[in-house]
Amino acid sequence: MSPHRPPRVATWLLGAALTATDRDAVLGDLVEEHGMRVRHSSAVDAGHWYWGQVCRTIPLVVWRRAIRDGWLWTLGAAASAYVAAGFIENVGLALVARLSDGQTPSQPIAIMVGLAALAVAGYLASWMRRGSANVLASLIIIAVFVLSLVFPGRASFWYGVSFLLLGPLAAYAGGRLAERHRKGARMICRGLGVLILSGLVTSCASPAQPPTTSDAALLDELVTLERSALDRWVTMDPDGYLGLYADEITYFDPTTETRINGREAMRARLEPVRTAKLPFTEPRYELIEPKVQGGSDLAVLTYNMVNYAKLSGRGESILARWNATEVYRRVDGRWRIVHSHWSNVQPPPAAPPAQDRP
Amino acid sequence: VLLALVRLGADAYGMTVRREIENRTGRSLSIGAIYATLERLETKGLIDSSVGEPTAERGGRAKRHFRMTADGELALNASQEAIRRMTLGLRRRWSTT
Fold first, then answer.
1. ipTM of the complex model
2. What is the pLDDT of residues B15-33, one digit of tens each?
3. What are the extents of the domains in chain A?
């Protein structure tokens, strides 16, 4: 810092915040008074005073510009478009799921739908206010970054990277398109508005029908897998379950003192079942109120089960009642059990020989 | 700010207005606050401004001179009259407490 010149960094910072019309007047006033203070006191005091003025003036100047130039409106338009992008993405994913008979969309398809939604949002933002598509692009970067920090591991690495790199580009491209077709943009936005409104009215008018088609399809798929394993299990054949278990399966039931880890450990545990002598005949089971929760790659299946069989000299009896939790994960495109937890319903049935799990 | 403009007359610009108020009131003010107020007053038509010649002591930057308009004088009169009426007869009360 020269003793007779004001701090350059401070001058540059304030100059960058000021508009061209105010810049000469404000900076000139400060430079003039700084020179006076250098002459009457000291360069150090004058420098401190100059920095103080700059630090107190910049927030005021930025706020005045934000109000005068409509920065808040631009930010509002971008934020609204971001919310709209979420809505459009969900509608798109639901449509894709419906078109593919309730199958949850794969990750590449989900990414494409998400990027298309962001491009439409960029178009909307630019239509609402010129330049807000660029702000939307910045919002996307911030949102993806923050979400990946707050919820690590919730989405795959490539999913996050795709949105971090391509999301802002999609919004920017949508904005550029809107700038070119401003009149056309108005018509498209009106059309989209009508579509969104109709969707909202339709969804509000329709009675709640849980689960959705997609959830129902997933439930069917997992219950079919579970039944195929149970049908073999009740005849003392563990291969159904062993075929369903993922390599990293973890397992609990009322007889395990510690968790069993891995398919090979499960194979060793279930091997004696094959040669066990059954004290009953005609075993069957009832699978009650299955429910699935989860998404495209991870799902939790829970249900209650009752085991029945005919004991010698008696009719059919209840052997055991179970609470079952099976955590499925999609591995190489196929559902596999990664965690299994079985617990007895209390009190146990009166019949003495409770069947081994399940 | 309007009173400072009256006092300064033709020499009223950002720096002198800021110093005038600071010297007379003892309050430290930023140049940003002065210009924010001047801009509001100009928007209301109470003052107007003109750009002077650049000078070396200002790093080659021009001054922006401000002066009060007729509307500004009316507003100042009205404001002073309002203060006078509101304070009429009160001086003794707050002096004795």
1. 0.86
2. 999 999 999 999 889 999 9
3. 8-69, 71-183, 213-344
